[in-house]
Design brief:
Distance between the termini: 71 Å
Strand content: 5-15%
Number of helices: 16
Largest sheet: 8 strands, mixed
Helix content: 40-55%
Shape: globular
Number of strands: 15
Radius of gyration: 25 Å
């Protein structure tokens, strides 16, 4: 009896330990976003403050009327600011409104192609349910798709833009007679531009088709499916298709479109094809706020869960964050998510950094390695799409977010150097070694808080970078990154003097 009692006690203790271990793992992997100071997550404040100047400058140059920036790291929201105007002009001639509306932190913005991430998530939720395999032909589930040589196109090829479709439908869908079903039938009848899996071509047709797939497999229109399975479970109350007219004053205006007879598009989806599909489509249609979009990104960083709600399995998240496009260098693509795209991710770009952009001027970057989210929402197509590119300001926001991380200390700058080494930024191993050696010395003086020697060795570090640049031992981009980061670090220690 005693032996049985002792065994029972041991089993009970073991069971309790397992429960608490699982709780700790759950807490670690289910991080929620809360306000915090940059220093609490080892980030410098100065680069984050410099984002304000960069955004204000872009607005002054009419890159966009307004913007919202959201930056978080390790679950702490370190920046969330609004700039400029959500609605400012009445027509494409930049005629000023009598009462323009300022951009707010909770302004609802047309996400444009960031909507594709919601489509991909919905598709992978159906995959989680065992509804299909990624390499199944699309025609297995949509028989009428099997025309014009598309019999072998797979679901994965749609998700990774390797199906062979052209970038856009062969005709604007709003010009097709009939209603939503007629226009979706037109999409299903499209021909390929290239044989499947021979080229990477970013294509709205892929995601229009995936939207149809969601509706066929679920028996539910896409907007209802996304609400029931993604936005409602995640508490994303400001994320939706076809926002109510009561929300108009909270929504950023987009383009003046006389060719669609809509005038100023404000509160309705900007994308003409999505608009012609009653505002619900696989490639566009989602409206959201920066905070809601950050919740969505944090769910991905949490491997499919947020605030106790699991919307994707860990395996689905891993597949979405896998580069399927090794055959197309530079076009790294997960399932829905783009990967490792320096042109807007800048120094946050690594092999597993996820992101996407939207035609209206939106972008999202989520870095698992840095546990960081950087979001820029703009209404750059207000009042016309004929404006300068938002890509430089997208990249600048990512650059300064990365600088806030890497310029925190000499040790974090060494981590940045390792990333640069993997990108081939140094012409020799010795050049990279010398940079890391200098940073190691600086780090030791940082540990003992010897400000004078930190400053002295930082000057030597900058001299070394100048030497390497002059002798072409380091790339121009890497030099600029490290010289700028070292300047931020110098300023940090100067304030300690």
């Amino acid at each position: 009896m005693r032996r049985q009692g002792k065994s029972f006690l041991l089993i009970l203790i073991f069971a309790i330990s397992i429960i608490f271990t699982n709780l700790e793992v759950g807490q670690a992997s289910d991080q929620e976003l809360v306000p915090g100071e940059p220093a609490s997550v080892d980030m410098l404040d100065n680069p984050l403050q410099d984002i304000d100047y960069a955004i204000d400058q872009a607005i002054a140059e009419q890159v966009m009327p307004g913007a919202v920036v959201f930056v978080a790291r390790k679950g702490k929201i370190v920046k969330h600011e609004a700039y400029g105007y959500a609605a400012r002009y009445t027509d494409a001639d930049f005629t000023e409104m009598e009462q323009p509306i300022e951009m707010q932190k909770d302004t609802i913005v047309d996400m444009a192609s960031i909507s594709k991430l919601f489509t991909a998530t919905a598709v992978m939720q159906l995959w989680d349910q065992g509804m299909f395999e990624l390499d199944d032909p699309v025609a297995d589930y949509i028989p009428e798709f099997a025309v014009n040589g598309k019999e072998s196109v797979t679901i994965r090829q749609l998700l990774t833009h390797t199906s062979g479709f052209a970038p856009s439908p062969s005709s604007s869908l709003y010009l097709i007679e009939g209603g939503r079903d007629d226009r979706l039938d037109f999409v299903l009848n499209e021909s390929l531009q290239n044989p499947p899996n021979t080229e990477y071509v970013y294509s709205d047709v892929n995601y229009l088709t995936l939207g149809i797939l969601i509706e066929r497999l679920s028996g539910t229109r896409q907007d209802h499916f996304v609400a029931d399975h993604i936005t409602d479970p995640l508490g994303m109350e400001d994320t939706m298709y076809n926002p109510s007219s009561t929300l108009r004053e909270r929504i950023a205006a987009t383009e003046y479109q006389p060719w669609t007879n809509r005038g100023l598009v404000w509160g309705s989806v900007h994308d003409e094809n999505a608009w012609s599909l009653d505002g619900v489509a696989g490639q566009a249609g989602i409206f959201s706020t920066a905070a809601d979009l950050a919740t969505f990104a944090q769910m991905m960083l949490n491997k499919g869960v947020y605030s106790g709600e699991r919307v994707l399995s860990e395996q689905a998240v891993e597949l979405m964050n896998t580069n399927w496009n090794d055959a197309f260098p530079g076009q790294d693509q997960g399932l829905g998510w783009e990967l490792n795209q320096s042109w807007y991710m800048d120094n946050l770009a690594e092999e597993n950094t996820m992101g996407h952009t939207g035609y209206t001027g939106t972008s999202i970057v989520a870095s698992p390695n840095q546990e960081t989210i950087a979001i820029l929402l703009t209404n750059r197509v207000h009042p016309t799409r004929e404006t300068v590119s938002t890509n430089p300001i997208r990249r600048k926001v990512s650059e300064l977010t990365a600088a806030a991380i890497h310029a925190w200390s000499a040790e974090s700058m060494k981590a940045q150097v390792e990333i640069l080494v993997r990108k081939g930024a140094f012409t020799s191993e010795r050049a990279a070694y010398m940079v890391k050696l200098h940073l190691t010395a600086i780090s030791r003086y940082e540990e003992i808080k010897d400000t004078e020697k930190v400053m002295k060795h930082l000057q030597g570090f900058q001299d070394l970078l100048d030497y390497q640049k002059q002798n072409q031992l380091i790339s121009e981009d890497a030099y600029t990154t490290l010289i700028n980061d070292s300047a931020y670090l110098v300023n940090k220690w100067r304030l300690k003097e």
